[in-house]
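Letters spell out the chain; backbone shape is given numerically. Take this protein:
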Amino acid sequence: MTIATAQYGIGEPRDFAAFGERVAARVAEAVRTGAQFVVLPEYLALEAAAILEGETRADFVRSLAGLQAHHEAFLALARELARKHAIHLVAGSFLLDVGGGRYRNRSYFASPEGRVVYQDKLTLTGFERSAGVIEPGDELKVFDTAFGRVGIDICYDVEFPLHARAQVEAGARVILVPSCTDTEAGAMRVRVGCQARALENQVYVACAVTAGLAEWSPALDVNTGRAAIYTPIDRGFPSDGVLVRADEGADWAFAELDLAALDAFKREAQVANAHDWFAQLRPAVVRVKAERL
């Protein structure tokens, strides 16, 4: 399974067609390297808010409302690219109006046949809560593909271990993380979350990020982080758990994920984090015992 995770430099497209051309060109670049899975970053659709009138695009909530007219075109773009290139495509995320003036941060996942499914972000960041119009999702999913089951954890969600754990227990061997962070601390939190989920579940975790500056946008103004793919830390894998990490200024992180080797390694691993997960749930240790010195 060959995967490409984007380090997507945010631009300022003049119209939705130009936005679509930018995304299509990036995806085509990944496909030329042989990518079968392509992961684009969280908030990707917000780049299209550049086409809105100045005062609208400068206001986060108004820009969300303005983008809704392009929702179907965004879905059509994801379907078209997945079909055209015969790939599995995580099309970043789109903040979708779900009624009552509320939005969900929704990551769409398109198959080579053009079917589209989605995972909503389950936990809101401080920025998202402060907007006052975004609500968390209420359903955690896994998705069956030609390469086996995968899960999607959107940015902040990967910092919470029980999401990925439930997906792995449901059969996921790869966790896909579309992300958007505006500080080095935020990027580090996502990186540590990704590595922790790979360590404790002994799976691959692949993270895509936004990059660069977009001063026209209140949400995408500053973008940090590096696209990367993480592994278990054990024999047969990198000693630091980093399979690949994009260089600064690069557009992609590429890697071949050997899922058969992943399954085989668990039988011969030095440690068994995934298997030993339940040891921490023993009745004698699930509650802390306080003792006086």
Q: What stands out?
A: The first strand starts at residue 2 and ends at 9. The chain has ten helices and 14 strands.
